[in-house]
Specification:
Elements lengths: L5 E3 L2 H4 L12 H13 L6 E3 L6 H4 L5 H10 L6 H8 L10 H20 L5 E4 L20 H9 L6 E5 L6 H6 L6 E8 L23 E6 L5 H19 L3 E5 L17 H12 L5 E4 L6 H15 L38 H13 L7
Parallel strand pairs: 1-2, 1-3, 3-8, 4-5, 4-7, 5-6, 7-8
Helix pairs in contact: 2-11, 6-7, 9-10, 9-12, 10-11
Bound molecules: ligand ZLM, calcium ion and zinc ion (ZN).
Length: 370
């Protein structure tokens, strides 16, 4: 008998509005949830409602003063100078339930970690997590906490080696920074890079320091990459990383802003192409945590997280090309499940450039004989 995959969801998160016109819309969580429910897949998952992370739990990464600040931050009496120190550009995005919202993001990922550690699930999914830019004492790129770092710290209490894979269109800078000097966490991020694309870090050359040298990989990409070219990077590199690092557990950040027609990203993957990456990783059959992240064309985020939930849990045989009848049906525009690549978008990566990136990364892990 196999254990059910865990699906972590708290309905109050989906009701939060980060700000008028803000690209990050938590409603995408409720829409994903509706597709799972309408398709009957939800009934086959171990559904878990998370508790908010406590201040003490947040302090496993974050400074006490920063956590105290976040706790008070949403109130109008919060100190204006403090806002400048801790929030930089993010001061624009303060909203009333900020602390509650981010404490639940982190609580969800901590719950996922504990379900894996206790063997209660082999796959644990938290679409409300994946806030990869958060730093120990400042907010960055919509991420006021870093649930991923907190989750990995929890996993490290039980597992020797944790592999972190980031397929969000942005560089996973906060996670890379937190574990840059250790050989117990291997971080790899695939991302759009160049022309000042946020957060501007994640160069091919950056590969960890001190004990952590060789335990970070960055795959910088130009706009327009589609399924086949992306797969030809992802598959051989991940195959090699798995073989060399031999992780005990995997954390996969699944920002969907790398698919076609995202509001912020300019890559051109199809939903199916992106989901194939998830299938490839789940096939290693390691304890695996699956997290959300970016994704700014809301109806497509819901399509992809729905598809990935099915793929990661081995229930994709139950899917059809059409979305199930659901209460947001009109909002989806078309009733199709897949988000195809946009045929009018040109891939700005040349085959030669991609081959050079791939071979430079693989060469770091050659055994010396070949
Ligand atoms: N300005 N509204 C990805 C995080 C990306 C920093 C440039 C603010 C936006 C963006 C906000 C409605 C993850 C930057 C942007 C305008 C300084 C970013 C509010 C549109 C809007 O219409 C918008 C008033 C807003 C923000 C676009 N911000 C696009 N890109 C990035 C952050 C997070 O996906 O990786 C994981 C969850 N910020 O480029 C500015 C430099 C602030
Ligand atoms: Ca990334
Ligand atoms: Zn992103």
């Amino acid at each position: 008998m196999s254990t059910k995959a865990a699906y972590i969801y708290h309905h109050t998160m989906a009701d939060v509005i980060l700000g008028p016109g803000h690209p990050m819309q938590p409603a995408r969580l409720a829409i994903t949830h509706e597709l799972l429910s309408a398709s009957g897949i939800l009934d086959q998952l171990l559904c878990v409602e998370p508790q908010p992370a406590t201040k003490a739990q947040l302090q496993a990464l974050h400074d006490k003063d920063y956590v105290d600040f976040l706790f008070r931050a949403a109130s109008p009496i919060a100190d204006k100078d403090q806002k400048c120190v801790y929030l930089c550009m993010e001061a624009l995005f303060m909203f009333p339930d900020l602390y509650k919202y981010y404490a639940l993001c982190a609580g969800g990922t901590l719950t996922a970690a504990r379900l894996l550690i206790r063997g209660e699930a082999k796959i644990a999914i938290n679409w409300g997590g994946g806030l990869h830019h958060g730093k120990k004492d400042w907010a960055h790129g919509f991420c006021f906490v870093n649930d991923i770092v907190l989750g990995i710290i929890e996993l490290l209490k039980f597992y020797d080696r944790v592999l972190y894979i980031d397929i969000d269109v942005h560089h996973g800078d906060g996670v890379e920074a937190a574990f840059n000097n250790t050989d117990r966490v291997f971080t790899i991020s695939f991302h759009q890079f160049g022309n000042e694309f946020f957060p501007r870090t994640g160069r091919l050359e950056d590969c960890g320091e001190e004990e952590g040298q060789g335990f970070a990989v960055n795959v910088p990409l130009k706009p327009g990459i589609a399924d086949e070219a992306y797969r030809n990077m992802f598959t051989p590199i991940m195959e090699r990383v798995m073989a060399v690092f031999n992780p005990n557990a995997v954390v996969l950040q699944c920002g969907t802003d790398s698919i076609a027609n995202d509001r912020l990203g300019s890559l051109n993957l199809s939903a199916k192409g992106h989901a194939e990456c998830v299938a490839f990783i789940c096939n290693f059959k390691l304890p695996t945590m699956i997290l959300g992240g970016g994704g700014y064309t809301v109806q497509n985020v819901a399509r992809l997280w729905f598809l990935k939930t099915a793929v990661a849990t081995g229930l994709d045989g139950q899917l059809t090309e059409k979305l199930p009848a659901n209460k947001y049906y009109n909002f989806f525009g078309t009733g199709k499940l897949n988000v195809p690549s946009d045929a009018t978008v040109k891939d700005q990566n040349t085959a030669e450039e991609l081959e050079l990136i791939r071979s430079k990364i693989l060469a770091r892990y050659d055994s010396g004989t070949g």
